[in-house]
């Protein structure tokens, strides 16, 4: 370890703390779990995917961390309560909570039934409220405050057609987080959001309708990469490590006075607000110009 790394570790103060990661078994959640474990944090995690979670748990234990895990559907209120009951027995307090679980699928709002609407609200907002309510008493036991990090999305900050209920639920999570940051501020309990955009996750893949997913099978990866580079100013979607790094920052003492905020880990898409880097010489504009339009709409030109 270099002197610089030792200095940053000391300032961050993560070693020896305890965390809960809801949805910490696979994908983005696994990256977060292992980043926390690598920083010296003991972890309790739950996930619906037992196989992936087992790999994550084994890796975290190999790092020398105490780990508790349980296979549950975090959107089931009874299951989430049981998980927190078990966490309270496994650890004498909590310092960090990360609520990663979420997801949706692309469809017109008027095609949704009430079951689908309720499901979107529960898995993108409802369980977060329950998780925070169960976690706060365990954080209070530590007597030194703590950090709760809720995953929201860029869609909570723009009109997301065909993702309306998802976007509304994530917006609710965002403002709930702000409100609780105010309510718990004097106790040193900080709440913040991370708002990714397109990320390499099973959730984003499953959100696509089958016909679109099937169409992607015939598209070269290089072409998909070029499309992402048009859309995301940084040139591509954030890797899992970028999201895990944001969690480490918000969980640590480096962010002691950061609360009620939303960190956009999106490569600049929120800042771009619709400005795409169109090909064929059009450059950064909201709508394709003469260079790209003939390729998009191949009709006879003047």
TrEMBL record:
Family, per entry: Belongs to the short-chain dehydrogenases/reductases (SDR) family.
Question: CDD domains of this UniProt entry?
Answer: SDR_c
Which PANTHER family does the entry mention? OXIDOREDUCTASE, SHORT-CHAIN DEHYDROGENASE/REDUCTASE FAMILY (AFU_ORTHOLOGUE AFUA_5G02870), SHORT-CHAIN DEHYDROGENASE_REDUCTASE FAMILY PROTEIN
Q: Which SUPFAM superfamilies match?
A: NAD(P)-binding Rossmann-fold domains
Extract the signal peptide range.
none
Q: Which UniProt keywords apply?
A: Oxidoreductase
Q: Say if the entry is tagged with keyword DNA damage.
A: no
Record GO terms (molecular function): oxidoreductase activity
Upper taxonomic classification of the species? Bacteria, Pseudomonadati, Pseudomonadota, Alphaproteobacteria, Sphingomonadales
EC number assigned by the record: 1.-.-.-
Write down what this protein is called: SDR family oxidoreductase
